[in-house]
Amino acid sequence: MKRVIVYGDIHGCLDELKTLREKLDIQKEDLEISVGDILNKGPYLAHDMIRYVQEHHIEVIMGNNEAKALRQYRKYRKSGESYLQTTLRPFETATVLSLQEEDAAYLAALPYHKRVHNLTVIHGGLLPGMSLDALDETEKKEMTLVRYLDKNLEPIPWSDTENRYKFWAEVYDGREGFIVAGHHPFPEPKVAHYAMDIDTGCVYGGKLTAAVFEVKKEKVDTKHYTLVSQKAARDYWNEYLKGERDEED
Ligand SMILES: [Mn+2]
After folding, report:
1. Is residue 249 very low, low, confident or very high in pLDDT (cuts 50, 70, 90)?
2. What is the 8-class DSSP label of residue 24?
3. Under 8 Å between Cβ of 120 and 177
4. How far apart are CA 1 and CA 116, in angstroms?
5. For position 13, which CATH number holds?
6. Domain total for the chain?
7. What confidence tens digit (pLDDT) does each residue in 12-44 have?
8. 152 Cα to the center of ligand 1, angstroms
């Protein structure tokens, strides 16, 4: 293994991912890992995203959007068309309809974390008291959703800006290695002592970021890394929202 390369939330931004991989001059010995949320909200369909990461051997961590897509796909298979029309938004319907049975099997098998020596990749955040090897199904899902914590170090939703005390990475103590995660978009990667969030909101017109680590003697050098980004061609999500509103008018 030459390098470990971790990608932030891609959300269907396949063009930006391809350009970023060219910039990085990806080699066969590199290990590429996505923090998850490869699908939904962006321009390319879920099926195309899954095919691409499979063909290029990019490992993917379960993000909240993969978990949601799988849940919705299964419900659709059970309840049929009416479920799509009554419950899902257009982009969710497009995701569900693009998935094939083998894509669903792929999503169902995604891991919630991946360790590479002293480096750990997850989607959201780790809470105080959570230990990666002892998580139940509820905690695994919770982990994909963690952003800010309140004064009691309890996770709070994105919308609750009033009770924001610390971002999870700022209180994480390093017990599970150096963590690279995504999920909460920042204009620039949010780097703390033992963790970083590299979701730089590509699908919202930001950029797609990769964290690049060198591996030396069975150890990932987490002190010296590089952050490489590719700017989004457009603000895909807000263009989509505008289209959704226009359709209602
Ligand atoms: Mn995301």
Report:
1. low
2. H
3. yes
4. 10
5. 3.60.21.10
6. 1
7. 999 999 999 999 999 999 999 999 999 999 999
8. 25
Q: Are 174 and 191 in contact (CB under 8 A)?
A: no
pTM of the model: 0.97
Give 248's pLDDT tier (boundaries 50, 70, 90). Answer: confident
CA of residue 216 to ligand 1 center, whole Å: 31
Q: How far is the C-alpha of 109 from the C-alpha of 114, rounded, in Å?
A: 13
Domain span at 184? 3-248
What is the distance in A from the centroid of ligand 1 to the CA of 112? Answer: 14
Cα-to-centroid distance, 202 and ligand 1 (Å):
10
Distance 65 CA to ligand 1 centre (A): 7
Q: Report the separation in Å between the CA atom of 217 and the middle of ligand 1, taken as the mean of its atom positions.
A: 33
Give residues whose Cβ lies within 5 Å of ion ligand 1.
9, 37
Alpha-carbon distance 202 to 236, whole Å? 8
